[in-house]
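One record is given unchanged without comment:
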Amino acid sequence: MTGKTSENYNVNYLRYVKTQDPPTKHFKNCLAAFGVGGLICCIGQFIRYLLEYAGLSGDELAGSTSVILIFLGCLLTGFGVYDRIGRYAGAGSIVPITGFANSVTSPAIEFKTEGWIYGMAAKMFTVAGAIIVFGVCSGVIVGIIYYFL
């Protein structure tokens, strides 16, 4: 084939793909992401207010709120609810801390059949491993800088 003929095939193929693809609803997707992400954050704020009313403050309050949100994200992932939320909300479901919990829990559930070590434990950190490593390394560097200042 000559270069001109292959270009025609590419143009025709792209034209065909464009006719078969459903149109993307950008406004609806952005609105769903904003609404669900905001709702998750509002739930987190409500949990924070409840814990504050129970007497927690400072780091205990922030840590407890985060732990509860992570637990809820893992629980909803285990029941298959978080995946449906993600299909509807898109990026709105992955931005809050519950999205991180989902990204760790989903591979662990998916590869559980391969065993505890090579399945669940190894695959659990495939998506979130780089984030965890970066977080730990950054924490160590900031801690050393803080120690010497």
